[in-house]
Design goal:
There is one protein chain. With 166 residues, this protein is an alpha+beta fold. It has 2 domains: 1-30; 35-165, Roll (2,3-Dihydroxybiphenyl 1,2-Dioxygenase, domain 1), CATH 3.10.180. Helix content is 34%, strand content 31%. It has helices at 3-28, 48-59, 98-106, 120-129, and strands spanning 35-44, 66-70, 75-81, 86-92, 109-117, 140-141, 145-150, 160-165. It has an 8-stranded mixed beta sheet. A hairpin with a 4-residue loop joins strand 3 and strand 4. The longest helix has 26 residues, at 3-28. It is globular, with a radius of gyration of 20 Å. The N and C termini lie far apart (63 Å).
């Protein structure tokens, strides 16, 4: 067997050992489920009504849409309910709002994924203790209830929102 083949086998064996170790660690820990489900997917758009028309033309899923304005967040939001998840279209109404800056930098598209939790305060505390970089250390009042964001630097580049329904 040549040296290259031996190195590949060694790497594969180490990879399998690591997978086994991780699987054993995951089965040993207590079953504390922080995330109940995916609540919604947030999509940054420049104009909610144009985006609603576009999505409806393509997918025909826009039916019972609720549009709300959150002046304290500097956004207007359209909520499109699907079976067990919602799509949230987010339009800036304040040029200084985070969503406006996101659109300037990245353009329209996926903004965040929201996870529903039972106790947002406990979840934020736990995440902070685990080293997560929290955008919000305290929850704020959102459309569905309490919300807080985790910085993408802590979640492999994905902006995560925690949401606790009221």
């Amino acid at each position: 067997m040549d040296k290259g083949s031996q190195e590949r086998i060694t790497r594969k064996a180490k990879s399998l050992e690591e997978e086994l170790r991780l699987a054993q660690e995951l089965t040993k820990r207590e079953r504390k489920v922080m995330v109940r489900r995916v609540s919604h997917i947030g999509i940054a758009v420049r104009n909610i009504y144009e985006a609603l028309a576009h999505y409806d033309k393509l997918f025909e899923f826009v039916s019972l849409v609720r549009v709300e304005t959150l002046p304290e967040q500097g956004v207007k939001v359209a909520i499109i309910p699907l079976d067990n998840i919602e799509i949230e279209l987010i339009e800036p109404i304040d040029p200084q709002a985070g969503i406006a800056k996101f659109l300037e930098k990245r353009g329209e598209g996926l903004h965040h994924i929201s996870f529903e939790v039972d106790d947002i305060s406990k979840s934020l505390k736990s995440l902070g203790q685990k080293g997560a970089q929290l955008i919000n250390r305290e929850a704020w009042q959102g459309i569905r209830g309490k919300s807080a964001f985790i910085h993408p630097a802590s979640t492999k580049g994905v902006l995560i929102e925690l949401a606790q329904r009221e």
